[in-house]
Amino acid sequence: MSSVAPTSDQIPTNTSVAVDPDLTSPPTNTPRSRSSVGLRQSGIYIAFAAIIVLFEVLTQGALLEPQNISNIVVQNSYILILAIGMILIIIAGHIDLSAGSVVAVTGAIAAVLMVNQHVSWPLAIVITLVMGALIGAWQGFWIAYFGIPAFIVTLAGMLVFRALTLTVLGNQGIGPFPDNVRTLANGFTPGFLGNVGLGVLGGADLFSLIVGVLAVAGIFGVQWRARRGRIGYRQAVDPLPIFALKLAGAALVLMFIIVQIARFKNLPWVLVLLAVLVLAYTLISQRTVFGRHIYAVGGNLQAASLSGVKVKAVTFWIFVNMGVLAAIAGIIFAGRLNQAGPTAGNSFELDAIAAAFIGGAAVQGGVGKVAGAITGGLIMAVINNGMSLIGSPSERVMLVKGLVLLGAVAFDVWSKRRAGRTR
Amino acid sequence: MTDAILQMRGITKTFPGVKALQDVNLEVRRGEIHAICGENGAGKSTLMKVLSGVYPHGSYDGEIYFDGGMCDFAGIRDSEKRGIVIIHQELALSPYLSLAENIFLGNERAKRGLIDWNRTNAEAADLLNRVGLRENPTTAARDLGVGKQQLVEIAKALSKEVRLLILDEPTAALNDEDSAHLLDLLRGLRDEGITCVIISHKLNEIEAVADAVTILRDGRTIETLDMRAGGVTEDRIISGMVGRDLEHRFPPHESTIGEEVLRIEDWTVHSPTQHGRVVVSEAHLTLRRGEIVGLAGLMGAGRTELAMSVFGRSYGVDISGRVFKNGKEIQIRTVGDAIRHGIAYATEDRKRYGLNLIEDIKRNVSAARLEKVANRGWVHDNEEYRVAEEFRSSLNIKAPSVASTTGNLSGGNQQKVVLAKWMFTDPDVLILDEPTRGIDVGAKYEIYGIINRLADQGKAILVISSELPELLGICDRIYALSAGRITGELSRANATPERLMAYMTTVKE
């Protein structure tokens, strides 16, 4: 017993103070539990790095080839976009099983508008996004205001929106899409500034490199300001060398990816879109009142409601948001295939859910990060891509992905139980 | 030597940090109705859980003799095998199963693994008849009112060939007619030779039905009174229940009381689950600046329901009545309205309703009024940290930093986070529901200090507590609530445990 009974100066001396059993532990314990939380948060990034190294070795360097990196991003962009919406829903303690069907129906709507009705493509995109929002509002209404579990509502949605897809398409694929939409989904930024030689690495797109350098500079600036702000408020911060090391590491990884992509072609448009979405949703989830309310609702619904959080509205709007993101994914997926098909988006929701849970979301809600879900999605993307590069049959890919999902959540449950026991 | 069917000797049961029972003795004679009385937390339910094997042999000290034999129950099944059956306060019927299925749940009438429905329903009909319930045994349990459900519970006990029937607050949720019927039934069972132990807060019922009363206080046996001899009044029982001296457990405090801040008039609330049941009835309440007001009442009196219904209609349906703030009538339809009108409510169950345990201290502190540290929807993290840090030091919350997870804190420190959360909303009125439940003496003293400081800042405070000494120790004025009605109001000078307990057990028509 290293700790002392508290507040001895405030208590009359004749009262014997029972040593609070819980209080005896924190001084030794809290650092440990904090580090285990840290491990849970950073474990996903360590696992990601390990998986990349593994496949880089197994594929004899093919994984991180310029073209392959570009492919991984472009081929999985729609899953990653769905994962952003899904993580917010999972944080709030719900689930969305309809995402794949919504991808299909919004893709079909976009196709009908652009191809059959010849609506100009920007207007068609706006209309499709609004339709996505309405679909989300429909589901959000039943879940938030009618009180039906999201599992049921979105299971129904999965069937209903698949059926609507078939109706809209008349059971056949509709295409081709306008060039602009195809470029958005599948193409690259124009090489505004031409190429620049990088010695042994060959030529690379100068514009992409400049964007990369600006992004790194931006990260430096933002992090430095945040650090100064914290010091100003006398909060604990990492020692300067560690802070610098972390930043340098992040900058190195980012620049490596950008250089590789620049060596292949220019920036994929979907990468730009994805970067904007990740940044925006990270800010929304971490820095806004609305984002905080999502965590509050998922962490303890009753406590949130008794704290004046408009629980129903929060639930409603995250489903509207999911509908919009699914519509974006729907347009990109259809644009990439150059046709909206009846089977589009099949089982996308499962990939997005898996991404969220691999990325550290908790089954009970209240926990999770956008960056984690993206990382989870990328882990699955790398496994997919790496295994197909080494010629694994698809059933083995599926097997590995399943086991990774189970393992990630088992690790989460195990570490939580351990943290609970040391408490 | 009397013919004792049950003897519990020297029962001591310890929970981490708390001695729930200390050297308790209970002797019940064969074929009597034996009542157990005591305040909330006196240890009544714990004692019955020890007896019925909910707390297995070995997890407590002391000996139990039933019908002459030593008992070492490993679980509730063992005690039921010996004929000891407990009916808990919360009814445990499965709502969608039929009465017959409920009666024989876990004790099915089966032949080679297949349920014999004819036998099940026929035997159930007999048992229902025995408790005076004329219902078809195939009726679903949810179609019956609480009173009848209580009778089904008894029928279920009878199906187990009960010899000692324990009833924990059997009439708490019943109306007078159902209560009277239940008590009649108990008398009938007594005549059939079944011994009953009844836990009740309703002293008039005890007076009417019990042959003997054992009084518990602070986990100890105080006395056993023989009711058959006569002369034992409700007052006599009350004095046994409360008779304790107030130690120096409360920081001294002189309140400076100002003008009225909040007034509640004709406040009536109906139960959301039991149609038509009145939970709070025409309650009047006044709170003034700088005043600490207590709300006393036994379990089920409607204290929390009253508070929560005022706090943005968080409980109840068909709420009627008026609320005045600073003399002006206000409408509170949501929790957000309540917070904006400067009303704060700290729940009695901080883990379930008060805190987000997986989040850190600062996010809990800011949760009820995040806008205060936000600018156009953007949260100012550093400002939030600073504010939370201020509370951490001023309320003496023991944690390495405000980034610590609240789930890892002790009960006392969690309670301080709850208080910080509501102080952060700048309320004029703070309703504190069981602010010191489950926390140790040291932390309690600190909480009382915080309450006093809040009163000194001119806030009006309503403390709901099951501990009479606590109310008497810190309040300037105390309301007593009984069966949803305000039955009395006592100033600090006039308040005694006996008077309060008398009000708390009054049943008004």
UniProtKB/TrEMBL annotation, chain A:
InterPro entries the record matches: ABC_transp_permease
Transmembrane segments: 42-63, 69-90, 97-115, 121-138, 145-169, 196-222, 243-261, 267-284, 314-335, 347-363
Superkingdom per UniProt: Bacteria
Region spans: Disordered: 1-36
Localization (cell): Cell membrane
Keyword terms of this UniProt record: Cell inner membrane, Cell membrane, Membrane, Sugar transport, Transmembrane, Transmembrane helix, Transport
GO terms assigned for molecular function: transmembrane transporter activity
Any one annotated GO CC term: plasma membrane
Compositional bias per record (Low complexity), positions renumbered to this chain: 25-36
Pfam family, one: BPD_transp_2
Topology with respect to the bilayer: Multi-pass membrane protein
Ranges of biased composition (kind: Polar residues): 1-17
CDD domains: TM_PBP1_transp_AraH_like
Record-linked PANTHER family: ABC TRANSPORTER PERMEASE PROTEIN YPHD-RELATED-RELATED, XYLOSE TRANSPORT SYSTEM PERMEASE PROTEIN XYLH
Function: Part of the binding-protein-dependent transport system for D-xylose. Probably responsible for the translocation of the substrate across the membrane.
Listed NCBIfam families: GguB
Protein name in the entry: Xylose transport system permease protein XylH
Organism listed in the record: Micromonospora globispora
Highest classification ranks of the organism: Bacteria, Bacillati, Actinomycetota, Actinomycetes, Micromonosporales
UniProtKB/TrEMBL annotation, chain B:
A GO CC annotation given for this chain: plasma membrane
SUPFAM superfamilies xrefs: P-loop containing nucleoside triphosphate hydrolases (SSF52540)
InterPro entries linked: AAA+_ATPase, ABC_carbohydrate_import_ATPase, ABC_transporter-like_ATP-bd, ABC_transporter-like_CS, L-arabinose_ABC_transporter, P-loop_NTPase
Limits of the ABC transporter domain: 6-243, 262-508
Subcellular location: Cell membrane
GO MF annotations, alphabetized: ATP binding; ATP hydrolysis activity
Record keywords: ATP-binding, Cell membrane, Membrane, Nucleotide-binding, Repeat, Sugar transport, Translocase, Transport
Protein's membrane topology: Peripheral membrane protein
Superkingdom of source: Bacteria
Statement: the UniProt record of this protein carries the keyword Nucleotide-binding: yes
Principal cellular location given in the protein's record: membrane
NCBIfam families found in the cross-reference section: GguA
Record-given protein name: ABC transporter ATP-binding protein
Originating species: Micromonospora globispora
Phylogenetic classification of the source organism: Bacteria, Bacillati, Actinomycetota, Actinomycetes, Micromonosporales
